[in-house]
Write a structure and sequence with these properties.
The chain has 17 helices and 35 strands. It is an alpha+beta fold and about 700 residues long. Among the domains are: about 110 residues, Nucleotidyltransferase, domain 5, CATH 3.30.420.40; about 140 residues, Rossmann fold, CATH 3.40.50; about 110 residues, Dna Ligase, domain 1; about 70 residues, no CATH class. Helix 4 packs across helix 5.
Amino acid sequence: MGRESMRVSIDVGGTFTDVVMVDEKEGNFWYTKTPTTHHDLAIGVLSGLEEILSLSRRSMDEVDYLIHGTTIGTNAIVEGKGAKVGLITTRGFEDVLEIRRVARPKEAAFDFEVDNPPPLVPRSLRKGVAERINSRGQVFIPLEEATVREAVETFKKEQVEAIAVSLLFSFLNPSHEKKVGQICKAMFPEVLVSLSSEICPEFREYERTCTTVMNSYLGPVIKGYMENLLRRLRERYGEIRLHIMQSNGGSMTAEVAGDYAAHLINSGPAGGAMATAFMCRLIGHEMAVGADMGGTTFDISIIDRGMPKTTTWGGVTEYPIKLPMVDLKTIGAGGGSIAWVDQAGILQVGPQSAGSNPGPACYGWGGTLPTVTDANLVLGRLNPNYFLGGKLPLVPERAKEAIERFVAKPSGVSLEEGALSILRIVNANMAKGISAVSIQKGYDLREFIFVPFGGAAANHAVEIAEALGIGKIVIPPMAGNFSALGLAVANIEHDYVRTIAKKKDAIEPESLLAPYLLLEQEGIERLRQERVRVEDMEIEWSADLRYEGQSWELNIPVQRSTKWGPKELERIWRTFHDLHQRVYSYCDPRAPLEVVNLRVKAIGRNPDLTLPREERAPTALAKALKEKRPVYFRDKGFVEVPIYERDRLGAGTTLPGPCMVEESISTTLIPEGYIGSIDEYKNIVIMAGTEKWEK
């Protein structure tokens, strides 16, 4: 990886495809939005790329780094449009996916009809083979290859598109899995084969199997999309190297994405978390809530001590994914979220979305149902002639018709009160979603800043922050494309894990050091294949530990070294006790410990980016004023407020509410009682009253 001068990042969302171009040498940024083309996502990507090149007056020859974030994996899971998968497992364990953890969803406590989603592999395609590795990694029953061939023959007759292999204790000894994989590829070379010892080589049988099955379920979908996109990019621009955002906040090359498809779940939203952390580092805040409100979803991330909160226990729609990933919560709340009145006469908003096809009623693309965007337009909070910078004129009459017919009349309220009710409900839903991953996890949101982004978020930011008790809102530049900026600042990252499951007393320094060095070498080799220079490589070690008898582990950092002795082990035990004290308010240094997993993260550093920093030069508000427009507020009705153009506002400008700030890809509402100010990075910082924002 060379020292790139031009980067392009492309984030494909449910409604729009966002594109950002960065010129590292000059510090210039360009950005644009194009509608997402669901029938062929590559069309929207190519359209956005063509538009950004035209805006910047650059050619593809000048672009050294191209990265792409996508929700195609998540969408395939939610819509049930993944591949047909066959599962090979140890005989007698065919029903692991069905048994799960013998638990039902939380909602089942109140709704007896709620149940877990069906397994991604039906019983007829889950085949057990004769073999057994014991808990020490020793061969207890040799693999009977005839049983494997019999399973593969069944899969061929059933025309499966991918095969998942998850054998008992393969994370300790993968020899049987590798042999099964070889037989599958020899007999059925056209299908994708996923081995649990490669995808998720750690203990916990159900989660490991589910993660491997998910990789097979998504693999053909991701592989087909990537091959189509790469082919069309190369037809138009010649040889090109494309990186894909992973759910862990790093990237991988597109060529290997199909083999590691499970790593791409939440690929796009992870970019928003990285962008929020990037902003926190710039302005000197360690704690933040990032909130990406696009057309379809509302993606929430927590930034703790300057870094996105991560987990190895992710999942989508109750399917667990046991891989390192940014800890995100997604709810169905976006500009395209549909408002509807249920059978009890109660107004609901979402989770269904109009997306980009047919889109909100006001788009004039054929949509007839009222959405959040329609409500904002009716209340004067959107400029119908400046949506997407004027590229997509909105039709207020369509919005009024939809809200009047489906919300106002059924609810017995006026048009404006119906539209306001839509906004109040969606804001409450978003505040509740943030609370679930912050307040309910022990965070005090008074210590946080709120960083809203995505095309719709800045219009709703103050009411959400007010409901949560967050006193400071930072609306970044390029707010509508901020997730795409997060892709541009992401590094190349690969995670490796090895389960050892040993008690402290049975551990010698070399028994930990040797696996670490092997995993590290594997990571370095992968980075070399991706053309990362040695000086740009960074390796991090960590370990999962617990007290004997505990069900869950804590992950602690481990200092890298080529030689280990008793002092290094003692440092690991002490680090665990200290973390346990911070997390659970107690520790017991005399209690026996278990080392469960060893983890290595291989990082290929991209050159650091920063936003242009401006000298203080306040703008007279009259110079930034575009117009005055009636905007509807609760208990006040329509109030004529000034509308400012964001690009005209210099650092140090103060914006007393009520007012609105427009830009081509986003609109910010500053209500009465709040004051906005423009900081040195062109953020709009909003606080209540007359308090000044301090870094």
